[in-house]
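M23ase beta-sheet core domain-containing protein
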Amino acid sequence: MINLSDALASRRRHIDYCAGFGLAALGAVLAASAAEPLSAAAQPSGSDGEAQRRAPTEAQTEATITSVSETEADGDSPDPVARHQAALQQVRSRLQALRAGIADQVLYRKALRAELRQSEQDIDDLARANRQLTAMAVSQQQALNETAERLRQTRERLAQQRAALAELMRAAHVRGHGGYLRLLLDDEALRRKTRAFGYYRVLADARAARVARIELLRQDLAALEREGRDEAARLQRLAARQEQTRLRLSDARRARAAVLADLERALAEDRGRVAALAADAEALHALIERLKREAEIRDEIELDQTEISERRGQLTWPIAPAQLVRPFGKDRGSGALHADGVLLAAAPGAEVRAVHHGRVAYADWLRGFGMLIVIDHGGGYMTLYGHNQTLLKEVGEWVASGDLIALSGNSGGAERDALYFAIRHQGQALDPSDWCRVRAG
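Predicted structure tokens:
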């Protein structure tokens, strides 16, 4: 089994290595790979000079693989599952509070929209009433103008009537002046004058009655004029008050609209926070499930005290059925990159499984090996799985024996679909056929 103190020591060695040489070596490998063909295995064996030309690149690749064997992920906290579950609970509590706040904001927005709609209706009603009042005021003013015109005409007629009456009375006075003695001596003249005076009296009475009616009409018209002016003033005051009310409603509507806009922005921000928190909660949940799975694997490792060194000849091949395409050590003298491992026939997408429990130390593309995953089994042992099309584990993850870790392919420039499989101990290549239970054909 993997001892925690050994793992921590390995981690410290890896940190020192990376600080000094490891990252530079990996950079050299990648830089060298840019100038070389994708797969050394795909090159013809060629002459010794060609093998010597490939040797530096292979040495750099070997240095990278060797450095991987010292790689360990950072140690977890004593109880990472509980810690992340507490964080998840906090996120869920915040989500619940945010969603409750959003529900309240939605209700408030609904009320604001109703008030805004009512305000707009009130403003429309007031505007319509103001238009009606304005029309009434205009009509009232026209009536006042007509009344004033009638009053002016009536006054002119009254003045004419008064002038005519005065002229009549003056003429009657002139005619009757100095004829008093003649009236006494002449009966016929007296009778004529009496009839004339009677006529004048009737005429004067009629004229006086007419003048009285004209005066009454003038007074009525004056009263109407005063009432019209009062009504016009009242309408103007009412229109002014309604205009003030309309302006206040307009201000209130603008204020509500501003509050509603702020509320919409706040709702959008809160919904964004809810989405982010939901994503965080989902990620935390996935992390917790992964940690639980790793804890189960660690428990399984604790229960399985068997070291990989004790399972020589008992391991199961990483792919089934296992069929050797290139055995261990073939073309080793020519410097072939895969001579330190074996190539197993594999259909595209075939399942690749871990041969023993351990921790993923490398999971990435590497020149000559394509998508490569390396598992550290402790005690200086590691297994390598190359030319995959998909890697299903990440660096630092624990795996149990038989766990699915990759899907096979032909990445890294392999000539055919095949799985590269190798076992190393302290950097030395071991023949996988001596370690796996069912021998490959």
